[in-house]
Amino acid sequence: NLYNEDKKATIITQLIDQNNKTVITKETTLIIKTGKNTIKQEQISFSKPELSLPSPLPG
Fold first, then answer.
1. 52 domain-assigned
2. Cα–Cα distance between 6 and 26 in angstroms, integer?
């Protein structure tokens, strides 16, 4: 039965610097359980380990 299965959606957000290098990839997974609450799982990965915090924007 298709209506009783959990639905899953994945949203991938990438922050790219001006040299077109991917700095941060954030992956958000939404799991919609039938008749229950939506579960949100987030995973944030940094391609450069020294970027553990966002640096202020120039200007």
1. no
2. 22
Give yes or no for a contact between 12 and 32, defined as CB atoms under 8 angstroms apart.
no
Domain count, the chain: 1
28-56 pLDDT, tens digit each = 888 777 776 767 777 766 666 554 555 56
Q: What is the DSSP string of 5-58?
A: SPEEEEEEEEEE-TTS-EEEEEEEEEEE-TTSPEEEEEEEEESSTT-SSPPPPP
pLDDT, position 25: 84
Residue 56 belongs to a domain = no
pTM of the model: 0.42
Is 17 within a domain?
A: yes
Question: Is 51 inside a domain boundary?
Answer: no
